[in-house]
Write a structure and sequence with these properties.
The protein is an alpha/beta fold. It contains 23 helices and 15 strands. The chain has four domains: 94 residues, name from scop (3-Layer(aba) Sandwich), CATH 3.40.1690.20; 180 residues, Rossmann fold (3-Layer(aba) Sandwich); 77 residues, Orthogonal Bundle (Helicase, Ruva Protein, domain 3), CATH 1.10.8; 190 residues, Peptidase M41 (Methane Monooxygenase Hydroxylase, Chain G, domain 1, Up-down Bundle), CATH 1.20.58.760. The strands form three sheets. The chain has a six-stranded mixed β-sheet, sandwiched between helices. The chain has a five-stranded mixed β-sheet with strand order 1-4-3-2-5. Strand 2 and strand 3 form a beta hairpin. Helix 19 crosses helix 21. The radius of gyration is 39 Å and the shape is extended. The N terminus and C terminus are likely disordered.
Length: 664
């Protein structure tokens, strides 16, 4: 067999051998040397500027060896070596440079303003000291030096620009690496994190708790990557793009990594904002580079997180010109996804919590034609998520103890929490236990963690007057009482008048998980929101600013009932909600001025009716309200059991679920 000869490594254009790395290092050294020369690095290390007074002292002592006047502009005064060694204090700036024969003599430079004036002053020193002072006049041609000073920086810039361009092409190669300004410093190169055989994804579906529906859908992607022939033999095609849509913290990125970990294929991870840079063409270049690398590693997965950063709808509201670079990047992404064939075995996963703002071309068939909704976990999924995050925690495992950590109980206390929120609760509980020097994490630590995450940190140092404390107690008691008395309001779990975060008081409720909501349910919630202010007016005959958050939320609910859900008899079954999100700038109203007046009137009517109903309920149960407020003032914290002891059990079935906060 003939011996195979090793072919020389080609350069980026493929028309010659690639230059060794030391060539570029040599170029850099040359540029630095030129720069050092320009800034004066080539001058004598023992040359120092001197003032006239010090020069006069040197001349009067006769320490100068010679004086040379160059072009009538500067005088170079060479100091005798014996003078340097004799008077080390005077010549300390030159002394260290001339010891042991390292320099034959030190030199000072005096800049001459006027040659005639300099000559007259030397004669005065000569007459005063009685010593002869002579100097030599020299004419030098510095044309080349002046040219170098003027044009040197431009030359260095050109050389540096060429060097960095050549280095960038060598590192990245080809079109995918980017060129021109975008190719400098590697800004045009894809900086996606790559996980392959050397750097594997260690996340599998076992690490992803909950998300049963989403996992079932993405399993098809995993099966295709493992057994592509099973689909292609039947003529089927796997979707080229899969879009994971859901609220923040629900595990979209974790699910994408689990897909790569289960399939055992390379995984390219990149954020949408990483594509866009200040340089023109960089985003499109990075897109090309990412997809070319993926094709070489096929089969593989490309994951683009927060894709709305680059995939936002083009030309929104007629405003153009400011986002040309982002639109060019989006166009390149559309082109690359459209260019995939069914045999590439490259699947693009993307995640976003704002699917409504994405460009329609990105969501069409053949690109991201499949959307998987990753929703907030329900109570069973929250149990599973708690189990995952509690694996490495030291918990109180004594089931007979009140401190025992029960996952079922915690799942009921944290509805509406995402997977990231639950992870934060577990971590915060561990920190709470550590601050109290506990050996094990107890149930109360988890409850404190939930309170801190939902309501904020307790601020017992905030000073409240006695009147303010009474007002807050009645305010929160009003919320708790009305929510307990109304059928569709959210029942109380805990209420406190200890300041948390920005709020002076807070209450936690457990509303029912619903897929649809009726007018009666929303009206009861509005009534409980207005109950805090109603309680203040009933007890004190005046109102305070503490109900700002309450009336804001009640007003928004009333506006939604009228303008979105069509639940106002005056406005009718009409919705002004724009689900496409094309009216972000609010340049026009979708209704007339007359309709706007009707909307305002209906919103006010609903809020006032809710307020009147809250006052009626609290007036009827004034004795219970006073008792509850007094206990809250004394204890500062009350629970559902305290409310049930005062008002009695609710006559309808209570449902334990989502815990929210109403702030004073």
């Amino acid at each position: 067999m003939a011996e195979q000869r090793k072919q020389p490594q080609r350069n980026a254009k493929g028309n010659g051998p690639r230059r060794p790395r030391f060539i570029y290092i040599a170029y850099g050294v040359i540029i630095l040397a030129l720069l050092y020369t320009l800034i004066g690095g080539g001058e004598s290390a023992t040359q120092r500027d001197i003032e006239w007074d010090k020069l006069v002292g040197i001349l009067e002592r006769g320490d100068q060896e010679r004086i040379t006047v160059i072009n009538g502009k500067r005088a170079e005064i060479t100091i005798k070596k014996e003078a340097l060694l004799r008077d080390t204090v005077t010549y300390k700036d030159l002394y260290s440079k001339t010891l042991a024969g390292k320099s034959p003599a030190g030199m000072y430079v005096y800049n001459i303003g006027s040659y005639d004036h300099f000559d007259r002053e030397l004669k005065k020193v000569e007459d005063r000291s009685g010593k002869t002072i002579s100097y030599k006049i020299v004419e030098e041609n510095n044309t080349f030096r002046e040219i170098l000073v003027w044009f040197g920086p431009l030359l260095i810039f050109i050389l540096f620009f060429w060097l960095m361009s050549a280095w960038s092409r060598r590192q990245m190669g080809g079109e995918s690496g980017g060129g021109g300004i975008g190719g400098l410093f590697g800004v045009g190169r894809s900086n996606a994190k790559q996980y392959d055989a050397t750097k594997q994804v260690n996340v599998t579906f076992k690490d992803v708790a909950g998300l049963a529906g989403a996992k079932e859908e993405v399993m098809e992607v995993v099966d295709f990557l493992k057994n592509p022939k099973h689909y292609t033999e039947l003529g089927g095609k796997i979707p080229k793009g899969v879009l994971l849509v859901g609220p923040p913290g629900t595990g979209k990125t974790l699910l994408a990594k689990a897909v790569a970990g289960e399939a055992g294929v390379p995984f390219f991870s990149m954020s949408g904002s990483d594509f866009v840079e200040m340089f023109v063409g960089v985003g499109a270049s990075r897109v090309r580079g990412l997809f070319e690398e993926a094709k070489k590693k096929s089969p593989c997965i490309i994951f683009i997180d927060e894709i709305y950063s680059v995939g936002r709808a083009r030309g929104r509201a007629g405003i153009t010109g400011g986002n040309d670079e982002r639109e060019n990047t989006l166009n390149q992404l559309l082109t690359e996804m459209d260019g995939f064939s069914s045999g590439t075995n490259v699947i693009v996963l993307a995640a976003t919590n704002r699917a409504d703002v994405l460009d329609k071309a990105l969501l069409r068939a053949g690109r991201f034609d499949r959307q998987i909704y990753v929703e907030l976990p329900d109570i069973e999924e929250r149990k599973a998520i708690f189990a995952v995050h509690m694996k490495n925690l030291k918990l109180c495992d004594d089931k007979s103890s009140e401190s025992y950590v029960d996952r079922d109980f915690l799942a009921k206390q944290t509805p509406g929490f995402s997977g990231a929120d639950i992870a934060n609760v577990c971590n915060e509980a561990a920190l709470c236990a550590a601050r109290k020097n506990k050996k094990r994490i107890e149930k109360q630590d988890f409850l404190d963690a939930v309170d801190r995450i939902v309501g904020g940190l307790e601020k017992r140092t905030k000073v409240l007057t006695d009147q303010e404390k009474h007002t807050i107690a009645y305010h929160e008691s009003g919320h708790a009482s009305v929510s307990w008395l109304l059928r569709w309001a959210n029942p109380l779990v805990k209420v406190t008048i200890v300041p948390r975060g920005k709020a002076l008081g807070a209450a936690w409720y457990l509303p029912e998980e619903r897929q649809i909501t009726t007018y009666e349910q929303m009206f009861d919630e509005m009534t409980s929101l207005m109950a805090g202010r109603a309680s203040e007016e009933i007890v004190y005959g005046k109102i305070s600013t503490g109900a700002l958050n309450d009336i804001e939320r009640a007003t928004k609910m009333a506006q939604a009932l009228v303008t979105y859900y069509g639940m106002s008899p005056e406005v009718g079954n009409i919705s002004f909600y724009d689900s496409t999100g094309q009216s972000d700038y609010g340049l026009t109203k979708p209704f007339s001025e007359k309709t706007a007046e009707t909307i305002d009137r209906e919103v006010k009517r609903m809020v006032e009716e809710a307020y009147a109903k809250a006052k009626e309920l609290l007036t009827t149960h004034r004795e219970q309200l006073d008792e509850l407020a007094q206990q809250l003032y004394d204890k500062e914290v009350l629970f559902r059991e305290d409310l049930e002891r005062i008002y009695g059990p609710r006559p309808w079935e209570m449902t334990d679920d989502k815990e929210t906060s109403q702030e004073a």
